Amino acid sequence: MNINTAILAVVTTVCSAGAAWSTGYQLFVRRRWPKVSAEIVRYRISRSDGDRGQAFFHPAYRFTTLDGETKIGLSSWGWRRRPWPRGAKVFVQYNPDNPRRTEIQCFANEWGIASTLVALALGFWAVIYWLPLNFF
């Protein structure tokens, strides 16, 4: 086994395990957490590097639990732009045992981690095996 094969094996294993865990978690959330409508009320801005880094917009949203309690949620995911205008309706899922744990239903939140890890593994395959065979 050469070093390229060893690196590829480690990266593929780690990415596959992470993608499998992320997919399993999302399937658990979809099955166990109630889905309700929410309204975007504002954004919290965080920066990647203090005051000078890239701004990330974290949507805050208001939703009502199945028990009739009104809650405010804040997405832990941040985007480089505001993906929804204020007042936009979105769907969220929340943990019934802890309604502060919520997730907006969108591709980035649901499948972003798994997709990124699969793309990373495929990129390593391309760099280590496909590119040298076809270009060098």
Question: Could you characterize the architecture of this molecule?
Answer:
This protein is an alpha+beta fold and 136 residues long. The chain has one domain. The protein contains 2 helices and 5 strands, in the order H-E-E-E-E-E-H. The protein has helices at 3-32, 107-135; strands at residues 35-47, 55-64, 70-74, 89-95, 98-104. It has a 5-stranded antiparallel sheet. The longest helix is centred in the N-terminal third of the chain and has 30 residues, at 3-32.
Quick summary:
This protein has 136 residues and is of the alpha+beta class. The protein is built from two helices and five strands. The protein has helices spanning 3-32, 107-135; strands at residues 35-47, 55-64, 70-74, 89-95, 98-104.
Largest sheet, order of strands side by side? 3-2-1-4-5
Overall form: elongated
Oligomer: single chain
Distance between the termini: 21 Å
How confident overall, as mean pLDDT? 83
What is the helix content? 40-55%
The number of distinct β-strands equals 5
